[in-house]
């Protein structure tokens, strides 16, 4: 009976200890794979994916904003002059390069050969007119071709005395011989300063007409009209500090996008969580019968477990106690009683 006592202790004591130890060891891992942890992993993954996607969207949005907000700083058109009976003139066309309410400086660049006739011409006039359409005529003013802006400015070639002119030619003779330089002069004549166009496509220039007015015939190599935007304020900052502006404005746009996406996600979660659940699950009758059957079997098992201690007590009372073996009988009886009591406590725990 003593062996049975120690056997019972080895059966229930160490196993329960191992279960407690394993439960303590596996508790952190159960927390890592719980439903709340998996939901947190999914939300984090979705947030990181959305944030990465919004970084690309922010960069593209800044690029679109930059090219729409910042005008073309330097716009140049070459004018092919037409020579005939009158003064030489020429036209050029534009697309949609101009921005309304943006100041522009307009200038005309002429490359003139230093011929005696050009030097003898003296002062001459440059007439520049901007139009909002592209007529096929010589761009004469009319009801459908009203000018947006017009300017006339004087110009003259640089004077040089004969001695200085000869010395300059002698000094540049090697360059003239090899073709690196030619005997010409480039004049840059400012025509308009801080020119602004009103809002509306009908107020933006689509073509221009340049006319060179002089008393005598002139020889001209090339003629160009240049528009240079004078940036101020935010446009100047974005143009001068391109990388810094890109980082700042893209980060700002990304922050606003992430905040909006987060608020939208929280609102959707709250709305979906607050929706009433009207679905009622109907359990089939078979499952109810099975549950009732399980209840009956559990009641029977509990009755059997209650009868077992009574049988053990009847067995103990059936053993006679002799006079010469009183000590031994009482020892055996106490061991049997302890074993029965231990089994009874175990049965009550299982119930």
UniProtKB/TrEMBL annotation:
Q: What is this protein called?
A: Pc13g10500 protein
Which top-rank group of organisms is this from?
Eukaryota
Give the chief site where it resides.
endoplasmic reticulum
Note the InterPro entries from the entry.
Seipin
Pfam families linked: Seipin
Give any Gene Ontology cellular component. endoplasmic reticulum membrane
In the bilayer, the protein is annotated as: Multi-pass membrane protein
- In residue numbers, the region (Disordered) covers 281-351
Q: Name one GO biological process term.
A: lipid metabolic process
- Which portions of the chain have biased composition (kind: Basic residues)? 340-351
Bias-annotated ranges (Basic and acidic residues) = 281-292, 302-315
Residues that span the membrane, as ranges: 45-67, 246-272
Q: Which keywords describe this protein according to UniProt? A: Endoplasmic reticulum, Lipid metabolism, Membrane, Transmembrane, Transmembrane helix
Kindly list the places in or outside the cell where this protein is found, as annotated in its UniProt entry: Endoplasmic reticulum membrane
């Amino acid at each position: 009976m003593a062996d049975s006592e120690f056997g019972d202790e080895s059966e229930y004591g160490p196993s329960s200890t191992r279960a407690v130890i394993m439960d303590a060891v596996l508790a952190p891992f159960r927390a890592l794979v719980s439903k709340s942890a998996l939901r947190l992993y999914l939300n984090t993954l979705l947030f990181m994916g959305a944030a990465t996607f919004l970084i690309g969207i922010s960069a593209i949005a800044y690029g679109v904003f930059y090219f729409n907000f910042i005008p073309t700083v330097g716009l140049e058109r070459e004018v092919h002059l037409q020579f005939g009976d009158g003064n030489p003139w020429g036209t050029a066309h534009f697309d949609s390069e101009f921005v309304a309410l943006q100041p522009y400086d307009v200038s005309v660049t002429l490359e003139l050969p230093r011929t005696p006739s050009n030097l003898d011409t003296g002062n001459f006039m440059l007439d520049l007119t901007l139009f909002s359409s592209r007529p096929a005529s010589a761009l004469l003013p009319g009801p459908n071709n009203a000018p947006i802006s017009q300017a006339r400015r004087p110009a003259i070639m640089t004077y040089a005395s004969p001695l200085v002119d000869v010395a300059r030619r002698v000094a540049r003779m090697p360059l003239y011989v090899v073709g690196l330089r030619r005997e010409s002069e480039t004049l840059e004549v400012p025509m308009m300063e801080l020119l602004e166009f009103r809002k509306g496509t009908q107020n933006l220039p689509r073509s221009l007409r340049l006319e060179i007015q002089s008393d005598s015939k002139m020889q001209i190599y090339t003629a160009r009209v240049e528009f240079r935007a004078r940036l101020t304020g935010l446009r100047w900052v974005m143009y001068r500090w391109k990388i810094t502006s890109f980082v700042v404005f893209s980060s700002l746009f990304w922050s606003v996008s992430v905040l909006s996406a987060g608020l939208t996600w929280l609102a959707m979660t709250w709305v979906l969580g607050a929706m009433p659940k009207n679905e009622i699950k109907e359990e089939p009758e078979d499952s109810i019968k099975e549950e009732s059957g399980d209840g009956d079997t559990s009641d029977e098992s509990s009755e059997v477990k209650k009868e077992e201690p009574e049988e053990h007590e009847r067995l103990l009372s059936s053993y006679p106690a002799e006079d010469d073996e009183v000590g031994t009988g009482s020892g055996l009886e106490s061991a049997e009683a302890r074993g029965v009591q231990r089994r009874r406590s175990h049965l009550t725990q299982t119930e």
